[in-house]
């Protein structure tokens, strides 16, 4: 029975374009080849299409299911995914999110990491769970390069932009994905405490026995696994299915019941004499995976920035349409300043993540860029991933009760956000990595600080002096590492906003984040900063 008309509800964002509606991203990518920018425009349109939004919703509502045995009692160890997950994987693989930085060709020459990061950023605004296997696949190729023979054997199977979800041996598939098995019950980040062992079988291969407490994307075709040998912790490539089609000793115990990242399965697994090949040298497992870890940390930052962008875009959209007390929410000074304050963090996070991608592209030919990549990878991952949950909570509050329900996107974004801060090194691990670089290569910080000072201009010398003071304290007090890490992130983000000529945005960010103002919540902008201009310049649309 009809009781009332539905009024004053925000229209859906379907039909908008996540790329064309993002002036900062367009500014960052304006020097990219036209073909890349055209692809980004198409991706931006897809991300906000109603069909894509349905895929994201279904992939997270219909979560993966583990089947350890078939109906006749045979052990199969298979994880079933909803077709929506496979559809998302198919599209993202076709865009090369798993392979593009390794492909030959001149289209993206000089901007490979930046072009992929831009695609990854847009796709994260749609659905992040399926990006986990793509991140691991792309990053695993870096580790495989430690064994050129293995790289030559496996890369032709991994690089094709074809998604093949069939349960076959790697050689029989059109395309492969790779996963990782690093942590164990007793160790976590302390992988040296791993007890899984690898014994040589006399033919150049190893037999691996033990367990992994977290192994995501368990239907990947092969995994990088850490295991102990006589010389110490080593890295192995372990296929899930053997050439004859039989299981390679994988015994999945259960799937993790995770807070977020629901579309992507994460498993506990035991290995029963699984066959593997060593990557790199015996006892150098951590050294072998370090380049891989660096790439995954970049993806954590990029995805977090994308999540924040998507969440705030919904909040701004809602505020422009929702009427309260006779005017739209965005006309309320408090709401406008909250949105503008959040917009500064999203802009800074986006600029900083893409700045890191630029350093990755230029590191081989520019010493200062190589220094930026080494010093700032843990810094960027730390700050961008860590601010996402709090910011996404605030976007939910902008929508009130409508933001808190699972039928909208914001609840999913909020549950998704913490994983990027936890995965591939939590906050303390990132801060300790900064300390490690400071002790081993303090001259690298000089390159970074010189760049920060040059971009900040006349007001930058004081910031550089504060950073140097924080470095001196951290050298003698490991417990101060988070202070240095956060200050580096804020200063570099402000510097990059200056580099991008986003003057009003940069001014407001630097004054409110580096000016020493005490702040624990959003909305701390005063009248000196034009909140309306900040929001409209970063989220264009009629207000």
Concise summary:
By secondary structure, the chain is α+β, with helices and mostly antiparallel strands.
Describe it for me?
This protein has 543 residues and is α+β, with helices and mostly antiparallel strands. The chain is 52% helix and 13% strand. It is built from 19 helices and eleven strands. The chain has helices at 23-28, 34-47, 50-61, 83-94, 112-124, 131-144, 148-158, 285-321, 333-362, 367-399, 401-404, 410-416, 418-422, 427-440, 442-456, 460-476, 481-499, 503-513, 531-538, and strands spanning 65-69, 75-80, 178-181, 197-200, 206-216, 222-229, 232-239, 250-255, 266-279, 323-324, 327-328. The strands form three sheets. Strands 3, 4, 5, 6, 7, 8 and 9 form a seven-stranded mixed beta sheet that branches. A two-stranded antiparallel ribbon has the order 1-2. Strands 10-11 form a two-stranded antiparallel sheet. α3 (50-61) crosses α4 (83-94). The longest helix is centred in the middle third of the chain and has 37 residues, at 285-321.
Low-confidence stretches: none
What's the pLDDT, averaged over the residues? 96
Order of helices and strands: HHHEEHHHHEEEEEEEHEEHHHHHHHHHHH
- Basic shape: globular
- Main beta sheet strand tally, sense and closure: 7 strands, mixed
Q: Total helix count?
A: 19
Radius of gyration: 24 Å
| Total beta strands | 11
How much of the sequence lies in strands comes to 5-15%
Assign a percent range to the helix content: 40-55%
Cα distance spanning the termini: 36 Å
Structural class: alpha+beta
């Amino acid at each position: 029975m009809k009781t009332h008309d539905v009024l004053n509800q925000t229209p859906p964002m379907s039909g908008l374009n996540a790329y064309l509606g993002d002036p900062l991203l367009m500014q960052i990518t304006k020097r990219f080849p036209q073909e890349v920018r055209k692809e980004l425009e198409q991706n931006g349109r897809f991300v906000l299409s109603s069909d894509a939004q349905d895929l994201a919703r279904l992939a997270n509502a219909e979560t993966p299911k583990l089947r350890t045995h078939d109906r006749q009692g045979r052990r199969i160890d298979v994880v079933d995914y909803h077709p929506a997950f496979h559809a998302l994987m198919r599209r993202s693989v076709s865009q090369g999110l798993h392979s593009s930085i390794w492909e030959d060709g001149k289209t993206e020459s000089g901007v490979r990491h930046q072009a992929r990061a831009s695609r990854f950023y847009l796709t994260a605004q749609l659905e992040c769970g399926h990006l986990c296997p793509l991140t691991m696949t792309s990053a695993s190729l870096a580790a495989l390069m430690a064994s050129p023979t293995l790289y030559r054997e496996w890369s032709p199977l991994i690089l094709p932009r074809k998604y093949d979800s069939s349960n076959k041996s790697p050689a029989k598939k059109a395309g492969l994905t790779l996963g990782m098995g690093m942590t164990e019950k007793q160790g976590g980040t302390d992988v040296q405490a791993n007890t899984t062992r690898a014994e040589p079988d006399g033919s150049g291969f190893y037999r691996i026995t033990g367990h992994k407490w977290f192994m995501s994307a368990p239907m990947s075709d092969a995994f990088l696994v850490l295991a102990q040998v006589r010389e110490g912790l080593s890295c192995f490539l372990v296929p899930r299915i053997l050439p004859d089609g039989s299981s390679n000793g994988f015994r999945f115990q259960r799937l993790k019941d995770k807070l977020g990242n629901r579309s992507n399965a994460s498993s506990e697994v035991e290995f029963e004499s699984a066959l593997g090949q060593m990557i790199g040298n015996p006892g150098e497992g951590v050294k072998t995976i370090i380049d891989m870890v660096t790439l995954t940390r970049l993806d954590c930052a990029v995805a977090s920035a994308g999540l924040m962008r998507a969440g705030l875009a919904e909040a701004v959209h809602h505020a422009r349409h929702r009427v309260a007390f006779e005017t739209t929410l965005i006309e309320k000074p408090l709401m406008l300043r909250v949105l503008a304050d959040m917009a500064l963090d999203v802009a800074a996070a986006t600029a900083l993540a893409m700045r890191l991608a630029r350093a990755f592209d230029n590191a081989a030919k520019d010493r200062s860029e190589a220094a930026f990549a080494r010093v700032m990878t843990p810094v960027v991952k730390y700050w961008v991933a860590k601010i996402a949950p709090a910011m996404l909570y605030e976007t939910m509050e902008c929508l009130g009760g409508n933001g808190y329900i699972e039928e909208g996107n914001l609840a999913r974004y909020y549950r998704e956000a913490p994983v990027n801060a936890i995965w591939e090194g939590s906050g303390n691990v990132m801060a300790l990595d900064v300390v490690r670089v400071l002790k081993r290569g303090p001259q690298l910080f000089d390159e970074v600080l010189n760049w920060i000072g040059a971009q900040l201009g006349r007001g930058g010398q004081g910031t550089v002096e504060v950073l140097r003071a924080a470095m001196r304290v951290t050298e003698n007090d490991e417990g101060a590492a988070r202070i240095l890490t956060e200050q580096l992130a804020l200063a570099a983000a402000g510097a990059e906003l200056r580099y991008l000529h986003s003057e009003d945005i940069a001014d407001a960010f630097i004054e409110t984040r580096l000016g020493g103002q005490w702040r624990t919540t959003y909305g701390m902008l005063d009248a000196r900063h034009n909140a309306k201009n900040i929001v409209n310049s970063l989220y264009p649309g009629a207000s």
